[in-house]
């Protein structure tokens, strides 16, 4: 489930306020938010007793609570969840009946208890806390202070009256050692307990615990096909230049007037054949207003995001040392060009606002290739009438050397300052949406992965962890 400033609500009945467990998987995609992002808790409005679990603006995990306006609990980790491309399993374990102070509330990340805390105010023994009081509870929001969560959630459990170790909900993979979810754990949920699988796109608040504690959806909540078991690529919020705001799940890029931004995706790929789609609302025809393509990792990593710093610098074209190693395509200018090795080559036909640009690329050493197309039609090879044919490896826009590097998707966008408005630019890595708008078609790749507007060329795949494992 992806939460683009949306959330779930439910009034839980009065129940056990001393002992409970909350387990969830999250992937945060908006770490630059100025305030905390709420994971689960009660509201602030009209309540002198409340509690909420949160992610700080610095990406620490914490919990804060008051009873009758008196601080009852304040814990915060020193560990920061800075990887916006990975899923994290969080377990919050409350049991105020414990005689040992540090056992009354415990936080776990990927199965490991966090004992190095920046703040450590524990609840008093046998005290009732804010969760499971007869008030409205929220997932992804702290009502009254508007601290919504931006990112993904999966496999969310609440066990009322039970203090469970993280091994109830997750385990180490016997082959890779990676921490992974137990899909059907043995849990006693209790009166207020719930298990949200987010598997019904029309009813994302459906409870699968057997307790019938279904939640109400608020806002434009969307189901995501990205899961802890198979992560699709997202834009990397940490690697950008200039002002911008990332849309939910890292799939949308909103840029401000007269500001160009650049963001690569993660995970990156080192070999294989990959397919991506782009869509932009901008009709700006300036050369730096809308660029997309691929960029190298490794020795060029320090140049990420420096897409436009005066002159004509962008990835693939170095001006005053501000460019990056890669390939850029500029679809909106009157004569579109593909840029690499510090030179431009005329390629394709001019795009307009809301056109969908397809990109297919193959990483294969010195014989690597890239193709672009628009609205379902692949462009001719530059300077020819030979139609691009990614499926058969023919008529690419460019043949290039991989240079033994990892490569990632790069995208930048800006609006014309004279328009006095903002435009949105989106990338579909296979989630089946441009921002919050679903694609009209749902074309999967040959492995059955992803949902794209246009047919994925045979032999090409969506960038996701399962495909990278099998085809990368």
Descriptive notes:
The protein is mainly β and 472 residues long. It has 2 domains: 2-218, Jelly Rolls, CATH 2.60.120; 234-471, Sandwich (Jelly Rolls), CATH 2.60.120. It is 1% helix and 38% strand. It is built from 1 helix and 34 strands. The strands form 6 sheets. Strands 11-7-6-5-4-12-2-17 form an 8-stranded antiparallel beta sheet, with no helix packed on it. The protein starts with a strand and ends with a helix. Mean pLDDT is 84; it is low at 241-263 and 298-311.
Properties at a glance:
single chain; 472 residues; Jelly Rolls; 2 domains; eight-stranded antiparallel β-sheet; 1 helix
Overall form: elongated
Q: What is the total number of structural domains?
A: 2
Classify the secondary structure makeup into a structural class: mainly beta
Looking at the overall shape, the CATH architecture of the largest domain is Sandwich
* Total number of strands: 34
Helical content band? under 10%
Give the DSSP E fraction (strand runs of 2 or more residues).
35-45%
Helical segment count = 1
Distance between the termini: 26 Å
CATH topology of the largest domain: the name is: Jelly Rolls
User: What's the alpha carbon Rg, rounded to whole Å?
Assistant: 24 Å
Q: What would you give as the CATH superfamily of the largest domain?
A: SPRY domain
Average per-residue pLDDT, rounded, comes to 84
Sheet with the most strands, sense and barrel status: 8 strands, antiparallel
Spatial strand arrangement across the major sheet: 11-7-6-5-4-12-2-17
- Which stretches of 5+ consecutive residues score pLDDT under 50? 241-263, 298-311
Q: What's the CATH C level of the largest domain?
A: Mainly Beta
